Amino acid sequence: MRIPAHSVCTAIRDDIVAGVYERGSRLTEELLARRYGVSRVPVREALRTLEAEGFVVTRRHAGACVAEPTEQEAADLLEMRMLLEPLGAARAAQRRTEAHLKVLRGLVRLGQERARRGNSEDLRSLGGWFHETLAQASGSPALTSTLAQLRHKIAWMYAVEAPANPAESWAEHGGIVDAVARGDSERARAVMALHTERATVAHRLRFPGGGDRPERVRTSQHPVNMTGVRH
């Protein structure tokens, strides 16, 4: 049975994000095909996709290698997310379905329950599902795909500290869902902007300046305008 290239792509991407392949290391079609139990054809297609996404680069005399993003490139990703997540929330308020709301509310309930118990691993997974579902509720495949790529690349480049007050973080998630349920796109945009700005501070570059100590991420130099936001 032929393994789809997108499945191979997902497997390689996940391993890059997990650090299985070091930055700058070669990715040979033969070794990848052997590792994932496929032919070289889907591996070749997957590498082309990963190069377009920025996870892989092709170097002369070396072939495909894991990319080595700069600190500026990493910082740009966080700024892009701070712009696009609020847009996604605003679109979700206009286009969400009852099914989306049911899932989002369920995730908030679970998140608030886990926050009380202090289970950080569960909270990380629930947070990812929440943002993925919200992006899907935006009704824009292009925006959903872009945000998914941003999440993968940010997870690759940054370590994230658990929030000091997870209950507060999940209260913000609840506020976003409330605004989306009411169809209040401006409120959804503003609350998500505040939430994303706060979350960004917890990100630490995994390899700042080539070193091995995470570096605190600076907050955006363009503060979020919260005028008119009700708390």
TrEMBL record:
| Alphabetical list of InterPro entries matching this protein | GntR_C, TF_FadR/GntR_C, Tscrpt_reg_HTH_GntR, WH-like_DNA-bd_sf, WH_DNA-bd_sf
SMART domains xrefs = FCD, HTH_GNTR
Q: Tell me which residues make up the HTH gntR-type domain.
A: 2-69
**Region (Disordered) spans which residues?**
206-231
Q: Name one GO molecular function term.
A: DNA binding
Which key words tag this protein in UniProt? Answer: DNA-binding, Transcription, Transcription regulation
* Extent of the signal sequence: none
Note the PROSITE patterns from the entry. Answer: HTH_GNTR (PS50949)
Record protein name field: Transcriptional regulator
